[in-house]
Amino acid sequence: MRTKIVAGNWKMNNNFDESIDLANKIERRLKNLGKHNTRVFVAPAFVNLKGVIDGLQSANIEVVAQNMHQADSGAFTGEISVSMLKNIGIKTVILGHSERRSYFNETDEALAEKINTVLENKMEAVFCFGEVLADRKSGNHYNVVESQIKKALFQINDADWSQIILAYEPVWAIGTGETASPEQAQEMHAFVRQLIADRYSETIADEVSILYGGSVKPGNAKEIFSKQTLSGFSFDTELLYIARKKKFKIKEIEAIVLKEHMNKKSKVNLLLDHLKMFLDLFKIRLNDFNKKYE
């Protein structure tokens, strides 16, 4: 059975104190939800990982790393190794985010090495993939995603898939306010599952969790989460900038969620509770952001 996942990538945001405070606020909100079977990830900056881990009082939130180097050690100034992450209690790492690919020229071949290092160290990888706008418009998006998946992951064994989480992040929908329609996300997730089924098995393809990340908003979260092939979503901090630009009002956003979703009995109600948790967090972050830039 696939695991539902909600992940927050904090990127290069929040200092040490802000990171701990933010994690504690999320933790308190999660406690109010009671028991659930959804995994919640937060990914602070490297220098704040240990502080957030130590600052959390329960295991309701999993702290994950945003990246790592493929080598165990060596003369790689500014990099972080898997042993360093494991030593402070990190069990999961994000690999292949579009910003790493774009700004730091990470290739699928390098990511394959990172995946191998993660697997050898019995850790878990959230592997990101997705196409740019030009590929989507030209109809080349399936070829791009197929290449990314095959080059980075198809060297692993059947058993290794238990340590892999996939995250479809169409680059054109990250931090732009544009969002792949639930149908587009569903189609891509189904395509990826078929790739895995053809190479490995239907069971592995069906059980692997695939997240969607790309301007997830209250208005589309329910539909995205309800799609059969999707297993969750991730939030990026660019939502703050979009919200400020469009002058969103937090009460209006909450009203949308409460009116349209929260009172309905369905299999996604718990996940919507988690979305509201992130809206509470979003409110805090947006207020701080507005004060800073008024």
Comma- or semicolon-separated keywords:
TIM Barrel, eight-stranded parallel sheet, globular, alpha/beta
Shape field: globular
- The helix fraction, in percent, is 40-55%
Strand order of the largest sheet: 3-2-1-8-7-6-5-4
Terminal Cα span: 47 Å
CATH superfamily descriptor: Aldolase class I
**Major beta-sheet overview:** 8 strands, parallel
Unreliable stretches (pLDDT < 50, length at least 5) are: 228-233, 235-251, 253-271
**What is the ordering of alpha helices and beta strands?**
EHEHEHEHHEHHEHHEHEHHH
CATH top level label: Alpha Beta
Describe, in plain words, how this protein is organized in 3D:
This protein is an alpha/beta fold and 294 residues long. It has one domain (4-293): Aldolase class I (TIM Barrel), CATH 3.20.20. The protein is 50% helix and 13% strand. It is built from 13 helices and eight strands. The chain has helices at residues 16-33, 49-55, 82-87, 98-103, 108-120, 133-138, 141-153, 182-199, 202-207, 218-226, 239-246, 250-262, 269-293, and strands at residues 4-9, 38-43, 62-63, 92-95, 124-129, 164-168, 210-212, 232-236. Residues 228-233, 235-251 and 253-271 have low confidence and may be disordered.
Summarize this, please?
Helices cover 50% and strands 13% of the residues.
List strands and helices in order, with pairings.
Layout (H helix, E strand, L loop, with lengths): L3 E6 L6 H18 L4 E6 L5 H7 L6 E2 L18 H6 L4 E4 L2 H6 L4 H13 L3 E6 L3 H6 L2 H13 L10 E5 L13 H18 L2 H6 L2 E3 L5 H9 L5 E5 L2 H8 L3 H13 L6 H25 L1
Parallel strand pairs: 1-2, 1-8, 2-3, 4-5, 5-6, 6-7, 7-8
Helix pairs in contact: 1-13, 5-7, 7-8, 10-13, 12-13
